[in-house]
Amino acid sequence: MEPWALCTPEIVPLLRPHPPVVGKVTHHSIELYWDLEKREKRQGPQEQWLRFSIEEEDPKMHNYGVIYTGYATKHVVEGLEPRTLYRFRLKVTSPSGEYEYSPVVSVATTREPISSEHFHRAVNVNDEDLLLRILEGGHVMVDVPNKFGFTALMVAAQKGYTRLVKILISNGTDVNLKNGSGKDSLMLACYAGHLDVVKYLRKHGASWDARDLGGCTALHWAADGGHCPVIDWMIKDGCEVDVVDTGSGWTPLMRVSAVTGSQKVASLLIEAGADVNVRDKDGKTPLMVAVLNNHEQLVQLLLDKGADATVKNEFGKGVLEMARVFDRQNVLSLLEERKKKMPRKSSVH
Description:
Function: Through the activation of JUN and AP-1-mediated transcription, may regulate apoptosis.
Strand content: 5-15%
Protein name: Fibronectin type 3 and ankyrin repeat domains 1 protein
Helix content: 25-40%
Pfam families: Ank_2
CATH superfamily of the largest domain: Ankyrin repeat-containing domain
Mean pLDDT: 89
CATH class of the largest domain: Mainly Alpha
Domain Fibronectin type-III: 16-113
Oligomer: single chain
Low-confidence stretches: 1-9, 345-349
GO biological process, one term: negative regulation of apoptotic process
Number of strands: 8
Radius of gyration: 37 Å
Distance between the termini: 135 Å
Shape: elongated
CATH topology of the largest domain: Serine Threonine Protein Phosphatase 5, Tetratricopeptide repeat
Structural class: alpha+beta
Order of helices and strands: EEEEEEEEHHHHHHHHHHHHHH
């Protein structure tokens, strides 16, 4: 027989317990704790301990439902609504079945914290009021990236939300930050063709010289985007026209020859001084690249602007051979037509 079984525990009348003490409160949880054990030492088997229940009021029915029962002296109520008032009471039951209720405690959950997710959502949907409210709250770092590594400024610049761009810049965002592929807000705005944003970013310290991970500048991206008003303004703003990327050694004009084949963009670049006979790392010229990509009108333009049709690549192949090998029929006839018209070099008398 266990020694404790010989001592009959004193029957202590149950006193009305104090209400549970409120611990940490968030927008979706409330911590409650109580400790009657300072008076009631826990001895012997559990069935001789006091048992605790936490009951929560149903505000519509005004009755109480048990949300916890057991021997612990702490409980965290979870899954609650933000900014809502909840009422709880503690029920203490003795081993003999007597019970007493504590007075009720009322606790309100907190306001939902405005996180970076809300911040980025406001930018995504162009919600100026919400963005201002969040920034005024001061709980969000203005440069916090979204899950794709874009800052709010990058998103606003890409989408052309000029007013949001202005708000973000006035709140101290860093215009020169880059995303995972090394693109900054200026490159994204140039590619997307948002001239107002481009101008504003330039005014606030964005640089034409920044490069992404492939060594491309804003002008390379603008050439891909094909927005002539942006390209025209960039050139007038002093952007370098024949800047070379670090990957292929391509200028923006080479990008046009490779990607879009846009005559209008190529014209702007050539008028601004782009070299029509520039060579990339493999010795290819814009004309060769335009031929290989079957950009017929661009081939015509490059020839009109002085592209050398007699150049050879590193394997000694010229543009005519390239056009034949790749069966570029229209380009081929265009090149042959041009060849016939080329003035024969007059022999010196």
